[in-house]
Amino acid sequence: MRKDALHNRELLLRAARSLFADRGLDVPLEEIARTAGVSIGTLYNRFPTRAELVEAVFEDRVATVAELAERSLAMDDAWKGLVAFITGVCELQAADLGYNDLAVRGAAADTAAGYALMRRIIERAQESGALRDDVTLEDMAFVIWGVAATVRATFRVAPGVWRRHLALTLDGLRATAAHPLPTPPMTPSQARAAMNDCP
């Protein structure tokens, strides 16, 4: 890529990162181009679709989630590892409305490796007896969606209140708090369909 093309790409990524963080993923592409000081045609030359721009902006966050998972799996206490992972992901969501939107849509860990790591974190906590046996990987979507909704609603008025929401949720995931659940968990295909329907 030519030097000027690289420069324009960086300008666009910087503008998109800032606008997404403050307002979420639905910021108009024209506004991103204007903030970057380039034409909309330049944006489309670098990023033909919004999805490609989003992927480039959050590439580092996806890597961070994988690192969080690896660190969580290395912890001796499986429950603390689960809590550290979920809290770390939620901290990323709370700091950036764009990433919060991405997490709701399921793309934040949307790789085979990402799902395998998350599944192992859950299984480890269940094997230790700390996490209720009936929790599935698909159930964890509720945790992410719930915290994401709290982050979105309180981002400007009470930015730390999501931690209270998460603490209440985590208490409900403990094996010692378990009661029979009224319905079966979503299947993987149902979970993906639900994520696709998220705004």
Shape, principal axes of CA atoms: elongated
Secondary-structure element string: HHHHHHHHHHH
* Helix run count: 11
Number of domains: 2
CATH class of the largest domain: Mainly Alpha
What value does the Rg take, in angstroms? Answer: 19 Å
Query: How helical, in percent, are the residues?
Result: 55-70%
Based on the coordinates given, report the CATH architecture of the largest domain. Orthogonal Bundle
CATH topology of the largest domain: Tetracycline Repressor, domain 2
Beta-strand segment tally: 0
Structural class of the secondary structure composition? mainly alpha
Largest sheet: none
Any overview of this molecule?
This protein has 199 residues and is mainly alpha-helical. It folds into two domains: 3-57, Homeodomain-like (Arc Repressor Mutant, subunit A); 59-197, Tetracycline Repressor, domain 2, CATH 1.10.357. Helices cover 70% and strands 0% of the residues. It has eleven helices and no strands. The chain has helices spanning 3-23, 29-36, 40-46, 50-57, 59-74, 78-95, 97-104, 112-127, 140-154, 162-173, 188-197. Helix 7 packs antiparallel against helix 9 and helix 9 packs antiparallel against helix 10. The mean pLDDT is 90.
Properties at a glance:
mainly alpha, 199 residues, Arc Repressor Mutant, subunit A, Tetracycline Repressor, domain 2
List strands and helices in order, with pairings.
Blueprint: H1 3-23, H2 29-36, H3 40-46, H4 50-57, H5 59-74, H6 78-95, H7 97-104, H8 112-127, H9 140-154, H10 162-173, H11 188-197
Helix pairs in contact: 1-2, 1-4, 5-6, 5-8, 6-7, 6-8, 6-9, 6-10, 7-9, 9-10
